[in-house]
Amino acid sequence: MSAAVSYRATSTSRPARSAQRPAFAVVQGARTSAVRSANSKLWILGTVIVGLIVIAIANLLMTLATSAGVYQVANLKARQAGLELSTQIVGQQVNSLSSNQNLANAAHALGMISNANPVYLDISKSKVYGSAAQAALGNSTNISGNLLANAEWTTRTNPKQLQAAVSAEQAQATKTPVAVAKVPNATTSKSAASAVVGGVANTNSATSQIGLAGSGIPAAVSH
Amino acid sequence: MAIIVLVAVILLGKLVEYQVVEAPSINAESLSRRSITTTIPAIRGDIVDRNGKILATTDISYNINVDPTLVLPFNRSVNGVDTQISVDQVTQELAAALKMQPQDVAAKLKGTSHFSQVAKEVDGITYLKIKQLGIPWVYTEQVPHRVYPNGALAGSLLGFMGADNTPLEGLEYSQNKCLAGVNGNETFQRGVDGIKIPGTADVKVAPQNGGTLKLTIDADLQYYAQQVMAQYVRSERADWGSAIVVEAKTGKILAAAEAPSVDPNNPTGVTADNRSSRIFRATFEPGSTIKTVTAATAIDQGVATPTSQVIAPQTAYVLGNYRISDSHQHPNERLTLQGILIESSNTGIIQIGIKVPYATRYNYWQNFGLGTPSQIGFPGEAGGEVHATAPDGASVYTSMFGQAMTVTPLQTAFIYQTFANGGVRLSPQLLSSCTAADGTVSAAQKVAAPVRVLKTSTASQIVAMLENNVVQKGGVGSTAQIPGYRIGGKSGTAQIADGKGGYGLLHAISFIGVAPAEDPQYVLAVTIYKPRTVSNSIGATPPFKMILEQVLRMFRVPPSTGKTPNIPARW
Predict the structure, then answer these.
(1) Is-above-0.90 flag for pTM?
(2) Mean pLDDT calculated for residue range B532-537
(3) Position A218 pLDDT exceeds 70
(4) Residue B89 phi, psi (nearest 5)
(5) Which of A185, B51, B187, B548 has its CA at 20 to 30 Å from residue B343's CA atom?
């Protein structure tokens, strides 16, 4: 500041050397300089205050945003935990339902038995291997019921529900005859059996299973 | 004034000391007082079958705990109305959710301790029910829980874990290096009430989960074989039974079924002697299934052929007065080597076997894998016993029909695998691979180099004789016929040592065979130990037939073509 004053003082000596300059110009110049200096201080102060306010507001906004984010993260984590739990519970049910013990019992409940006389077709040689014979109860290949313990077999297929579902599908198939050669429509042949197996609803059953026309028994897609 | 300034300076100094100089250590101490470091358990890897079906996996279970000092009535919103729930009501609700008696739950809620475990390792559904009750003083902790979704299926192989999640038996024990992960740890901050402050968890060391162990077992075939063996062990009132299915050209074990078999979910559900695998551990004198080894050795040494002729009496005397008899009454019979196998004649086989020195036969036994455990590394696996020198004179003869030696069920299967594979014995394979959590795949077991035991021509002659055992009438083998398929096999009815220098009344019966005989792909060995409703190997052929039919169906083996080479049994 003293340097500026000194500069101004030096500059005030200029009119003395020039008769055309009015003498009061020096006073006017000094007063303007002071005002400018004051304005400069105010400007700096204002800038600082505004800056602080902006920073405070930005900080507030960021805090709010971060806080909201934290709640969102917490919420998402809670949802994730819930979904993981649901996945685990459903996974346990699926494991139990797909256990060999449950499948064997369900197949037995549907009257399914293995045939000891399989017949194979060799398409390349146009040959038939083996002699077909009807699978029958009471032969040596039948084992009555499941004999293997499973303490984790907690979710079981309900045979009555399964049979009722198959009967319902058979009735439905009888009402709507389908040409033998027609490819079953995966989207319309709704598998009631798969929808109620073990009492666990399967909302995708209509598309995940293909029903053989008239058979009433759902067949694997890879059949 | 000076004092005030002095105090102010001192305070300022202390302030600087606490806030600047010692701040890090004070912060650390503060953090340590409110922080707790806990272990993040690594998830133990799965055990899967050859098709990826899960045989063992790890779920999360929940321990239900309370702080009894905080047990008080609390408010719950019921239909939008804030309602006070009494401790008695909560007790009833907890008991219903946990399927416990209310008085048992009530007892857990009392006391001055800050910790009481109401229930241990409940499943996800139960946990959800408890959570929905919204009880403020109930808290839970997650614990890994080993689960075997198929129960006793392959239970004897899988083994089981202890209550503290340490492996105790079977592959869980021997393959722990593959299955077990490395635990991690995390720290979190707790409030004055000891409860974890949400969002403060800081994982210091991330856990490394265990690898996936893949077996050569086919779970569906394993289930069927176990069902069959369970049925026959029950109906024949036997001590135990086993069935092993081997892929002849690879040595892969497709099924290793046993009855009784432990359910690894509940190991105490069976007696201690039924908690392990007898296929690997049980040793017994094999009996007549070894006659094929004696015959193969003689043929391979060039001292016999399938049509070599002997006269087989009912009883023969060796070493002066040591009596060797056949199991059934018969006059002197003119048998070929083929006929000896069909009739399973002891007096006939010793006339063929004696042509080969004992030391040579011992070398063959070793090459067949007898006397040595496999490379699978199953815990406690036995190697059986064959003697380099005959313990006594009689055993030179009795070893020709499977006495004076012991084998495991696994070893008997791989004798016949050698026949089925053109005379080359392969290393038994049960463990396909171990896939680490990062996807790295490594071998889970050693596989020894194949051993050429017999000439190819010898092996094919033995297979032909095995087929004639089944095709020709007169022997037990004919009961193992499967329509449409050419099957080969040999029966065994072994006496069991009574521990007093003699033999007891009960037997170990077996039937071991190959299919299809024209190009053997599968080997099946069935053993039933101490059946009480049947006294000879005719009790082993029905389960053999059932399981082999399933093998042929399952692996889409087309019915056989061609005819069985006829080898005369008599002369």
Answers:
(1) no
(2) 90
(3) no
(4) -65, -40
(5) B548
- In chain B, what are the helix, strand and coil shares in percent, each to the nearest 5? 35, 25, 40
Nearest C-alpha of chain A: how many angstroms from B549?
A: 7
Cβ of B123 and A131 within 8 Å? no
pLDDT at B352: 97
Q: pLDDT tens digits, residue range B427-442?
A: 999 999 999 999 999 9
Share of chain B above pLDDT 70, in %: 99
Contact across the interface for B59 and A88, Cβ inside 8 Å: yes
Six token digits for residue A90: 């459903």
Is-contact A174 A143, C-beta < 8 A? no
Q: Please, where are the H alpha helices in B193-274?
A: 219-235
Give the C-alpha separation, B247 to B253, whole Å: 6
Instruction: Check CB contact under 8 Å for A151 and B266.
Output: yes
Q: Please judge whether B227 and A98 are an interchain contact, meaning their C-beta atoms are less than 8 angstroms apart.
A: no
Mean pLDDT of B77-104: 91
Give one word for B556, left, alpha or beta, with left for phi > 0 and alpha for psi -120 to 50: left
Mark yes or no for CB contact B151/A129 under 8 Å: no
Does the distance separating the beta carbons of A143 and B227 come in below 8 Å? yes
Question: What ipTM was estimated for this complex?
Answer: 0.83
Q: What is the pLDDT of residues B171-202, one digit of tens each?
A: 999 999 999 999 888 888 877 666 667 667 77
| Residue B353 three-state SS | helix
Phi, psi of A74 (to 5 degrees): -60, -40
Six-digit token string for B177:
């290096």
Token code pair at residue B294: 């004696």
The mean pLDDT value for B435-456 works out to: 96
Whole-number pLDDT of residue A186: 33
Question: Mind listing the pLDDT tens digit for each residue in A86-132?
Answer: 898 898 888 889 999 998 888 888 888 777 676 778 788 887 777 77
Any chain B CB within 8 A of the CB of A208? no
Whether chain A has a CB inside 8 Å of the CB on B245: the answer is no
Lookup: tokens for B35:
């922080």
Q: Do A92 and B124 touch (CB under 8 A)?
A: yes
Looking at every residue in chain B, the average pLDDT score rounds to 92
Q: What integer pLDDT is reported at residue B239 of this predicted model?
A: 96
Which residue is closest to A94 within chain B, CA to CA?
B149
CA–CA separation, A194 and A199 (whole Å)? 10
Q: By the CB < 8 Å criterion, does A121 face chain B?
A: no
Quick check: B332 and B283 in contact, CB under 8 A? Answer: no
Inter-chain touch A120–B556, beta carbons under 8 Å: yes
Give me the residue from A122, A147, A149 closest to B558, CB to CB: A122
SS3 at position B378 = coil
Is the four-CA dihedral A112, A116, A117, A121 of positive or negative sign? positive
Tokens in use for B368?
Answer: 């067949």
pLDDT for the residue numbered B54: 94
Which pLDDT score, from 0 to 100, does residue A176 have?
63
Question: How far is A198 from chain B, CA to nearest CA, in Å?
Answer: 16
| Distance in Å, alpha carbon of B526 to nearest chain A alpha carbon | 16
Binned at pLDDT 50, 70 and 90, residue A182 comes out as: very low
DSSP B432-468: EEEE-TTS-EE-SS--PPPEE-S-HHHHHHHHHHHHH
Query: In this structure, what DSSP letter does residue B557 have?
Result: P
B289 touches chain A (CB under 8 A): no
φ, ψ dihedrals at B137, nearest 5° = -100, 10
